Amino acid sequence: MLQLRPGCECCDRDLPADSTEAYICTYECTFCRDCTELTLKGVCPNCGGELVPRPRRPPGMLARHPASTQRIFKPEGCKG
Ligand SMILES: [Zn+2]
Ligand SMILES: [Zn+2]
Predict the structure, then answer these.
(1) Ligand 2 centroid from CA 65, angstroms
(2) What is the pLDDT of residues 17-50, one digit of tens each?
(3) Residue 4 in contact with residue 54, Cβ under 8 Å?
(4) Whole-angstrom distance, CA of residue 6 vs CA of residue 72
């Protein structure tokens, strides 16, 4: 199950579970659309894998399986 992390690792922008701006890699490193497209060019800076749009969890399922609240912020990896 996806953790649905709450923010972008590069710029710490909020990325709620229903956001269409969230991108993840296979390890679920999480970034906003701006950082993914402009800075990272679609490649995860942590693992080198591709970044793809994060699927949204339907609200009913989100109530049963809430999104992660653990914020990860690692701007040093995001110089581009
Ligand atoms: Zn960002
Ligand atoms: Zn990654």
Answers:
(1) 23
(2) 999 999 999 999 999 999 999 999 999 999 999 9
(3) yes
(4) 8
State the Cα torsion 80-52-8-58 to the nearest 10°: 170
For residue 59, the CA-to-ligand 2 centroid distance in Å is 26
Q: What is the pTM of this model?
A: 0.94
Residue whose structure tokens are 């060019």: 41
Distance from Cα 25 to the centre of ligand 1, integer Å: 14
In contact, 23 and 50? CB cutoff 8 Å: no
- Ligand 1: centre distance to CA 60 (Å): 27
